[in-house]
Structures are given as C-alpha cells and as structure tokens.
Design a protein that fits this description.
There is one protein chain. The chain is built from 9 helices and 8 strands. The protein is of the alpha/beta class. It has one domain: Divalent-metal-dependent TIM barrel enzymes (TIM Barrel, Alpha-Beta Barrel), CATH 3.20.20. It has an 8-stranded parallel β-barrel, surrounded by 5 helices. It is globular. InterPro entries: HyI-like, Sugar_Epim/Isomerase, Xyl_isomerase-like_sf, Xyl_isomerase-like_TIM-brl. Its EC number is 5.3.1.22. One of its GO terms (biological process) is glyoxylate metabolic process. This is Putative hydroxypyruvate isomerase.
Length: 263
Amino acid sequence: MLKMKFCANLSFMFSEAPSILERYSLAKDAGFKAVETGFPFGHSLEQVKQAKENSGVDQVLINLLTGDVTKGEVGVTAVPGKEDEFRANLNTTIDYAKAVNAKKIHIMAGKLDNVTVNNWVTYEDNLKYAANKLKEDNILGVIEPINQHSVPKYFLSDYRKAIEIIQRINSPNLKLMLDIFHLQQICGDISHNIKSFMPYVGHIQIAQVPNRNEPDTPGEINYEYVLKQLDNHGYNDWIGLEYKPANNSKDGLKWIKKFGYDL
C-alpha cells in the first residue's frame, strides 16, 4: 500500500447522521483513525470532547468560531473594528481544540463586499496576534484561500497574498491550508503550485472539481497523480477529505483502495 494519511471531515462526510457528535463514531466505524471538523455550533465543549473520546478517533483540525453561519458569517479576521470579537472567537476555539487535542486551527477570514487596504492591515494584525497566542499552546494556525464560486466575497482567495502574509509574519505557528479543490478553481497549475507552495503548507484537503464529491468521481482533477505529487514533494501529514459524498459516505471510500492507499 502507498503511504498517505486521510482524515474525515465531519462537516461534509457522514451527513446521514444529523448531529456532528454522531459522526465521530461513524468515522471510526468506517475505518478512519482521525477526523477534522468545522466549529461544532450548538454543542458544548464537554459534549464534543465526550463524542470524540467515545469514538476513539484523533482530531487533527478544527475551524475557528465564525459567528452566525445562518447569516453567512465566516469569520471577522479581516474586519476592522471587530478585533475583540476575533480574539474572543479565537480563545473559544482554542478551548475546544485543547479539549479534543486538535493541533491545528483553520483561521477563517470572513466575507466582505468591498475590500480596502484597511482590511488587509487588520487581517495581518489579527493573524500576528493569533500566531503568538497559538504558540502558547503549541497549536498551528492555517489560512486557506477559498474560491469565489463556492463562497462568493470570501476575503482570502489569492494564494500569493496568503503566502506573502505568512512570510512577513514568519511564525512556525502560521501556515497555509492547501485545499486542492480551491487551488484548481483559483489558479490551477496544480503540479507547479504544489512544488512552489509546499514549504508553507501546514494542512491539505481534497475534493473533486466542480461538484466537490469523491476524488474518483468525474471532474477536472486526476487525484491519483496529484496525491503522488504531494508525496513526492515531501508531504507526510494528514489530508482532510473535505468532500460531499455522492451517495453513502462509507461506500464512497472505495476510491482509497482503488488508488492504492488504506486508512
């Protein structure tokens, strides 16, 4: 078997269970050793910790508390005047991360109608604060460019700008989340960009383009090739399966063995 570590994204997978708490055990039953999640809205820290511990899986990553998702809020990191809200959200997320022993937090930027220089200044200042704060608990912060088709008006949709910020902050506690699904839709050129971006990568996610289903479903990306490129360029950390199963989540995992991997 080829070497690669896959973790289930519980915000997308096992949606046959309405509660994210139930999905921990479904991931374990499907053979996963680890999971990642969005912020578990509506569930207390103790509930999430208990569900994770009962399942016996590890948790790799958790998303930042982002505000009211029903209103489309995906963070305030780039919003001037909301620095206190950002810091409170970060502190809450750190508490959850520590409870489930997650060593990575995805710091979401937010959506904006009109972007100004002040947004970039605020974004970078907040990321500096986050990197210093996360260092205290040995947690890695990752930032992810997200394509404008999936999340219109998302603030960060430029890999070069993301890397420039990471370079300026120059902290071991701030790296790039490289989601191949978004990479293809933002700029493509996957092979060269994997090589170029790899020194800055702290986490990777995958899904087919454009329908965001399993990697072996019809679409734009040859994932058998891409996964080997990730391996060839030295990535040996977890890969999050942030895709929407075309049908049943467990049945959809057949691609893993077909590609020569296991869980």
